[in-house]
Write a structure and sequence with these properties.
Elements lengths: L18 H28 L9 H13 L2 H33 L1 H15 L3 H12 L3 H25 L3 H9 L4 H38 L5 H10 L3 H29 L1 H7 L1
C-alpha cells in the first residue's frame, strides 16, 4: 500500500553526518584506544619504571589529581593568555606590514632580506635574549609568541594581496572607488582565504612560542610545569602537560578553521 502525502509535503529524513566524517572519528578513537592499550601492555611486560615511561593509567591518575588541585587550570590559563595576546598582536602587525610590502616593491626589496635573516635564527636562540631584555614576565612571552607568528602571517598576507586580479583593480578604479573602499570590498575578501591559511599556522606556532619562553624563564605556565616535572622526575606530570598543550593547540586550530568557514561561506554559496 502506497503512502500518500499532502500536496507540498516532503518526507523528512534524519540528518546524518557524511560517511567520511563518521569513518574519520571512528578510526581516530579506535587507533587511540589501540595505541593506549599497546602502551599499557609494554609498560607492564617490560616493567618500565614510572620515571622513564609511566603507564596511561598513571598519567590519567596524575591528570585527575592535578585537575582537582587546580594545578592544570592555573598554569593553563596563564599560557593561554600568552598565546592569545601573542597571536593577536603578531597577526595584526604582520597584516599591516604585509599590506605595505604588497603595495610597495621598493619597500619589500629593502626589508625582505632582514625579515628572512631574522627567520633564520631559531626562536630558542632569541628567547633568552628577550627574557633578559624584558624580564621573565608576561610581556616577554607575548613578544616571543608574536615573533614566531609574524612571519607566516606576513608571507600569506603579501601573497594573498598580490593574487588579486589586476582587472578587478582597474574595475574599482573605473568606479572611482577610494583606497579604503578598494581594501574593504576587493582586497580583503580576495586575500582572506590565503590570510586565514597563515593564521592557522600561526595559531599552532604561538603555542610553541609560549612554551619556549616559559622553558627559558618563568614561574608560571605549562612550560614551567614541564620544568617542574623534569626536575622532580615526575614524568607523568610532563605527559599531562604535553597532552594538555596538544589539546589547546588543536582547539585553537579548530577555532581558526571554524572562523574560516564562517567568513568564507560566500565561496561555498558561489560554487553552488
Amino acid at each position: 500500500m502506497q503512502q500518500e502525502f499532502l500536496p507540498g509535503s516532503q518526507e523528512r529524513k534524519p540528518k546524518r553526518l557524511p560517511g567520511f566524517i563518521q569513518n574519520r572519528f571512528w578510526l581516530f578513537f579506535v587507533s587511540l584506544f589501540l595505541a593506549l592499550l599497546t602502551w599499557q601492555i609494554l609498560v607492564m611486560i617490560f616493567k618500565i619504571p614510572s620515571f622513564l615511561l609511566p603507564s596511561p593509567i598513571q598519567v590519567a591518575q596524575r591528570f585527575i589529581f592535578a585537575f582537582k588541585t587546580g594545578l592544570i587550570q592555573r598554569h593553563l590559563s596563564y599560557t593561554l593568555l600568552e598565546v592569545l595576546l601573542g597571536l593577536f598582536s603578531g597577526s595584526i602587525l604582520a597584516t599591516l606590514v604585509g599590506y605595505w610590502l604588497a603595495k610597495s616593491p621598493v619597500l619589500e626589496n629593502i626589508i625582505s632580506p632582514y625579515l628572512v635573516a631574522s627567520q633564520a635564527i631559531p626562536i630558542v636562540a632569541i628567547a633568552p635574549l628577550i627574557i633578559i631584555w624584558f624580564g621573565p614576565g608576561l610581556l616577554a612571552k607575548v613578544i616571543i609568541c608574536a615573533l614566531i607568528v609574524f612571519f607566516p602571517v606576513l608571507i600569506n598576507t603579501v601573497i594573498g594581496l598580490r593574487e588579486v586580479p589586476q582587472d578587478l583593480h582597474h574595475l574599482m578604479h573605473s568606479l572611482y572607488a577610494s583606497r579604503l573602499q578598494t581594501l574593504r570590498y576587493l582586497e580583503i575578501p580576495s586575500a582572506l582565504p590565503v590570510l586565514l591559511g597563515g593564521l592557522r599556522v600561526g595559531a599552532t606556532l604561538s603555542v610553541i612560542g609560549a612554551i619556549v619562553g616559559e622553558l627559558v624563564g618563568s614561574d608560571r605556565g605549562m612550560g614551567f610545569l614541564i620544568n617542574v616535572g623534569r626536575g622532580q622526575y615526575d614524568t607523568a606530570l610532563v605527559f599531562v602537560a604535553v597532552i594538555t598543550l596538544i589539546i589547546m593547540a588543536s582547539s585553537l586550530y579548530a577555532l581558526v578553521v571554524l572562523l574560516e568557514k564562517r567568513l568564507l561561506a560566500w565561496q561555498t554559496w558561489r560554487k553552488n
